[in-house]
Amino acid sequence: MKHFLRVVTQFFVFLYFKCLWRGLKFVVRKFTGRCELQRICYNNKHGARRTLKIESSLRYSKNELLQSALSVHPDKVEKTIDDIMALKHINPDTNPQLGISLQASLLQIVGYRQLVAEVEKLRREPYDCENAEHEQMLMKLWKELRPDTPLSSRISKQWCEIGFQGSDPKTDFRGMGLLGLHNLLYFAEHDKSTALQILHDSLQPKHNEANRPEWEQKNQDKAIGYSFAIVGINITDLAHSLLVSGALKTHLYNVAPEMPSLVYLQQTFCYLMQEFHQFWVEEDPSDIMEFNRVRSKFHRRILRQLKNPDATLCPHFSASDLHLVNL
Amino acid sequence: MIFFNYFFFYYYFFLQGLLSILRKLKSTPDQEVRILLLGLDNGGKTTLLKQLASEDISHITPTQGFNIKSVQSQGFKLNVWDIGGQRKIRPYWRNYFENTDVLIYVIDSADRKRFEETGQELAELLDEEKLSGVPVLIFANKQDLLTAAPASEIAEGLNLHTIRDRMWQIQSCSALTGEGIQEGMNWVCKSVNAKKK
């Protein structure tokens, strides 16, 4: 019954968009003499506002060329723009800016899809002890986070010091695969001071009462004490779900001038780690058992933030680093 | 356009009202059962939980804290608590012992190096006063792996046959493929019924 009613509701929504919306578009086009894509490009500044509108305009278009533009290969974007201009009878000489704007937006849209595919591939690749590259990355992670202490052996209790669960980090990557390792390593390499600070804080209980029995300590002691690496893998899951659900479009369309690459996601990850850490401290949970409650509250907050089309999730080092990427 | 919007609103509220009435007409609530899911880290507790709730198991991350899900089964409402198995978290397990109806203990059958550790943790759990008499189901998980030890070998290694003060059962399963889980849950429901009598 519930399902049936939902279908009926959907039908009415469909009708609304099919008839009224199209009629409205037709009238406006006759009045202004500009097609929808032109209106969007002229009325909106570069960024998520424009690109999101262009994306939905193309998606709901009746024209096959416009619909397929969303999934076109990045190399063919330029040609697609020319085709669209021809289709809409727009003279490129009198509207020089339009082509450029459209192209930038379309590259962002196509790039986002590519990024999702690339990230999915990384996530599906499990950590493999036989793979020298994987092992090297893991060792590098240790060196970045613990520059002064050498690792006694590949399988060692020391891994717990940077927040893995046991003596072999391999099993902790689980559903996030190599993506988790890539993110952690990027964080440790490119935002080293923050990463070390968070790692340091995560190891420090607020009131250090090491002498008390564990059971008693837990009640008194409001430890920050989460496990750095495990939280990193959890936040990777958060970043991944934001990306796949499309919520991250707002941010990436605002910060990436053209195709967003993996680096952008990794920078978002750094931002999320920082913000989560701060959020955790503000929430002041009594112990680690509240992790999932705090995490879902944090998730909701980020989603709310991303509803604003001007939102960006930029870590403090983004300005200089993003600049480097653009070059 | 305005007319359309109004129509929409009325239609929407009408639906909401109808649904709430339907909900009230629903039959009496099921009997609630509290199930505790414990075991070492990387044993497959969260995967098992997600399988029980028929959710996607490809995005699992190590559990910080706990997860809880409610599952309907055989006239019961099973509230399953999945608590992280990391050594650091194990001291918190005891906070969840109270009112537990069934304990499910998950073992990674392929991780032979830690059989001793997992046996110790289980023995400590069985000694807990708050868990005395609580039926225990042991899942010998990860049977999809070639290196997995058979359930009989694990039962012997853990001296399960010496348990006299409660109902117990060992069930081989694979949380990844879902094999063996239903059999285990059938035993859970059966033991809850037996305890009530």
From TrEMBL, chain A:
InterPro entries: ELMO_dom, ELMO_domain-containing. GO terms for molecular function: GTPase activator activity. Signal peptide: none annotated. It comes from Gouania willdenowi. This is ELMO domain-containing protein. Residues 133-306 form the ELMO domain. It holds the Pfam family ELMO_CED12.
From TrEMBL, chain B:
It is a peripheral membrane protein. One of its GO terms (molecular function) is GTP binding. It is found in: Cytoplasm, Cytoskeleton, Microtubule organizing center, Centrosome; Golgi apparatus membrane. Pfam families: Arf. Keywords: Golgi apparatus, GTP-binding, Lipoprotein, Magnesium, Metal-binding, Myristate, Nucleotide-binding, Protein transport, Transport. Mg(2+) binds at T46, T63. The keyword GTP-binding applies. Belongs to the small GTPase superfamily. Arf family. This is ADP-ribosylation factor-like protein 3. The lineage of its organism: Eukaryota, Metazoa, Chordata, Craniata, Vertebrata. The gene is arl3b.
